[in-house]
C-alpha cells in the first residue's frame, strides 16, 4: 500500500513493548503510526502533520495524558482515544469531560482498539458532512440551527426550545449519525437542570423529539440506541 494513502495515527505511551505491538498490528490494517514516549512534542506535531487520530495514555512520565488532552483541545478537534488503567472511572469521566472521543482500559485486545479507532474516525468524517452555512448556523436533517440567535427552525417554522433542549440538539446536530452517550450529552449541556449522572436527560430528549416531530413533514430523526445513548439520524 502506498504510505501516502495510509492513515496517520499518533501513539503516545511510555510503554515501549506496547508501542511495538500496536505499531505492528495497526500497520497491518493500513495505519502509519508516529510514536511518542511522552507528550512534550505532541501538540506541535499535531499542528504540523495533522494525524487522523491520537491514541493517548493517561499515565505518562511528567505531564499526564489529561493535561496533554487539555492542550490538544485548545488547538485541535482531532479524534482522541484515551488509554486508562482498569477501574479508573474518575480518569475516564474526566477525559470525556475534557474532550476525548473514547477510552479503553488497559489491558486491552488490539482488535478492540482497532474497532474503536475506526469508529471515531467514521464519526469525525460524518461530522465534517454537516452543512455549515456560516460560523453561526448549520443545517442537518432538515433542521436549521442558529447559534447566534439560539433558534432552531424547519421549513420556516421556529421550534420553541428551552436552553437545555437547544444545547442537546446542538450537540446532536454537530455529530450527525453518531451515537452520543448520556454522559457526553450531559457534559455538553451542563447546567442547573442536571446533576451528576442525572437520568432526566431522557425526559429532555423526549420533549425535544416530540417538538421536532410535531412539525409538518418533519422526520423522526432522533433515535434511541438502547444501552448506548442517542443519535440524530441524517438520511436522504
Automatic annotation (TrEMBL):
The modification 4-aspartylphosphate is found at residue 57. Residues 135-234 bind DNA. PROSITE patterns: OMPR_PHOB (PS51755), RESPONSE_REGULATORY (PS50110). It comes from the Bacteria. The keyword Transcription regulation applies. Residues 135-234 form the OmpR/PhoB-type domain. Gene3D superfamilies: 3.40.50.2300, 6.10.250.690, Winged helix-like DNA-binding domain superfamily/Winged helix DNA-binding domain. Pfam families: Response_reg, Trans_reg_C. InterPro entries: CheY-like_superfamily, OmpR/PhoB-type_DNA-bd, Sig_transdc_resp-reg_C-effctor, Sig_transdc_resp-reg_receiver, WalR-like, WH-like_DNA-bd_sf. Keywords: DNA-binding, Phosphoprotein, Transcription, Transcription regulation, Two-component regulatory system. Residues 8-121 form the Response regulatory domain. PANTHER family: DNA-BINDING DUAL TRANSCRIPTIONAL REGULATOR OMPR, REGULATOR OF RPOS. This is Response regulator transcription factor. It comes from Geobacter benzoatilyticus.
Amino acid at each position: 500500500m502506498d504510505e501516502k494513502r495510509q492513515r496517520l495515527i499518533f501513539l503516545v505511551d511510555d510503554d515501549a513493548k506496547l508501542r511495538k505491538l500496536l505499531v505492528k498490528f495497526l500497520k497491518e490494517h493500513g495505519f502509519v503510526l508516529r510514536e511518542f514516549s511522552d507528550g512534550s512534542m505532541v501538540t506541535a506535531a499535531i499542528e504540523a502533520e495533522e494525524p487522523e487520530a491520537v491514541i493517548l495514555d493517561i499515565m505518562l512520565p511528567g505531564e499526564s495524558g489529561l493535561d496533554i488532552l487539555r492542550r490538544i483541545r485548545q488547538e485541535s478537534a482531532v479524534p482522541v482515544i484515551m488509554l486508562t488503567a482498569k477501574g479508573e472511572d474518575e480518569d475516564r469521566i474526566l477525559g470525556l469531560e475534557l474532550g476525548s472521543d473514547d477510552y479503553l482500559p488497559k489491558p486491552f485486545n488490539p482488535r478492540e482498539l482497532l474497532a474503536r479507532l475506526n469508529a471515531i474516525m467514521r464519526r469525525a468524517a460524518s461530522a465534517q458532512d454537516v452543512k455549515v452555512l456560516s460560523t453561526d448556523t448549520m443545517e442537518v436533517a432538515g433542521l436549521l440551527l442558529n447559534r447566534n440567535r439560539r433558534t432552531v427552525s424547519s421549513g420556516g417554522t421556529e421550534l420553541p426550545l428551552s436552553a437545555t433542549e437547544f444545547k442537546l440538539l446542538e450537540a446532536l446536530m454537530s455529530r450527525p449519525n453518531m451515537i452520543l452517550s448520556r454522559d457526553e450529552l450531559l457534559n455538553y449541556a451542563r447546567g442547573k437542570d442536571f446533576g451528576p449522572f442525572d437520568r432526566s436527560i431522557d425526559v429532555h430528549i423526549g420533549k425535544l423529539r416530540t417538538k421536532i416531530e410535531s412539525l409538518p413533514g418533519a422526520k423522526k430523526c432522533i433515535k434511541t440506541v438502547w444501552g448506548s445513548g442517542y443519535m440524530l439520524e441524517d438520511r436522504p
